[in-house]
Amino acid sequence: MKRQLINRSTIAEDLTAGLVLGIQSIPDGLANGLLALINPIYGLYGYMMGTFTGAFFTSSAFMSIQATSAMALVVASVPQITRGPDPNAPLFTLAILTGVFMLVAGLLKLGSLVRFVPNAVMTGFVNAVAILIILGQLDDLTGYSSTGANRIARTWDLLRNLDQVHLPTLMVGLLTIILILTLEKTSLKSLGMIVALVVASLVVPLLGADAVELVRDVAYIPGSLPRPMLPSLAAIPGLLIPALALTFVGLMQGAGITQSIPNPDGRYPDASGDFVGQGVANIVSGLFQGTTVAGSLSATALVVSAGARSRFANIFAGLVMAVAILLFGRFVGALAMPALAGLLIVVGFRTLKPERIVMVWQTGAVQQAVMALTFFAALFIPLQYAVLLGVALAVMLYVFQQSNKVTVKAWEIGPGQYPVEKVPPSVVPADQVTTLMPYGSLFYAAAPVFSAQLPEVTDATRHAAVILVLRGQTEVGSTFLNVLTRYAEQLRQQESKLMLAGVESSVVTQMERTGILQTIGRANVFPASEGIGEALLQAVEAAEQWIATQRERDVD
Fold first, then answer.
1. Most CB within 10 Å of its CB: which of 23, 137, 213, 407?
2. What is the C-alpha separation between 144 and 170, in angstroms, rounded?
3. pLDDT at 404
4. At 305, is the secondary structure helix, strand, or coil?
5. Structural contact between residues 33 and 82, judged by C-beta atoms closer than 8 angstroms
6. What is the pLDDT of residues 483-529, one digit of tens each?
7. Residues 29, 46: contact at Cβ < 8 Å?
8. For residue 15, how many C-alpha atoms fall within 13 Å in the half-sphere facing its CB?
9. What is the 3-state secondary structure (H, E, C) of 236-259?
């Protein structure tokens, strides 16, 4: 698909939207770096390179690729980055490795896989991230250095030592929050966040609050654009799990944009194409000293609401950030840390989704358990492992749901009539044809559920034929085939037989390879044909003839 970078008829709207996003992204990028426990400028570099590069490669015309809060928290939980002797090399390598994973997922057309992660998992994860964002800023907001194994423990330590809170620091943070909430209601709108940061930071020297920590006190901020850096190959083995976790988080968040914001032509983007764009953006971000990035729903919504009409809005936003770094980068160090903490606390509260919690809670006990387990896991264990746990829960939930959807019905077919669907008999009746139709997936976890619904074979079962209709089942596992083998053997012991109708060619091949076809008998398997019901009618006719033959033998 040809990607239109610039629409000349809407260039003015794209320039305006790009300017708004570019300016808005400057404090967001710095705050994201702070949230990830890295040099804030690397967060801004990631915003700049991700927004600019991603615009060229995503299927979505409007997707803004920036560092999200959830991904920042995953980065903050990686020991090589937060506690290593050289944190920069692992940070940039992690972004590149994540980009490679995303790019491979896109090239392999794995975009459809995002639908397998249930809403319960994402709801628990997103709300836990919101809590972690808020709690993670309390040290910078209060000026107290708490201790503890995790953010919950450190928050408890803070509450026990409120007398050690640095009041000037707290006042600057609270002032920032108040200014953001107030100025956003004025004509400044989203730009009010920048004004709030600047005003709150200016209060520090005016009040003579020398003990309030500034950005330059914790990190060196260069006033130049980043130079390319190669990844550290030695760091890759220890970064594989974090990169995999970041890939899941980033692609899931990007999928929200793919599914909700259409392109200018009214069509929705391709998820796999957006995977490719996010992958390339991460690789470029890592090469130019940026953190990991992904599709940002809030940034995308901002650029669209600001009037974006083509990809050029995001391209121009990246250029705006680059110019801002060159002209004003040396002033970034003067921003107050509690001001940035106040900004992140506002972001954290806005990330909370109580309405989604209520919806999931009302769904049922299984969804409640999955959401709660994901939520508490994200709070108490390193986030990269919590992400993978959430994905594992999603797979287990899918398997559980699919395995319980199997239903077996009995069909009664009269001459010249349509089949009548009924509840299967509890016991296989003697001297009769029993036709069974299974609904649902027949993979391994569903096999026991299917087996439990089959009519029981007893001593009274003689000269009976059970026909199992398998039309539409393109693949069955060995567990299901073992169920068929056991059932066929039970029937054989009672001088009865199992017959299969409408068997797809792929299933016949499976049965041949495993030897099940010989056990059941090739003559008892009726392959599917173009005619709907043709194989079933053939099986019924053969079964009735076989039963009639058995009766004649008994008479003789």
1. 137
2. 10
3. 66
4. helix
5. no
6. 999 999 999 999 999 999 999 998 999 898 888 888 899 999 999 98
7. yes
8. 5
9. HHHHHHHHHHHHHHHHHHHHHHHH
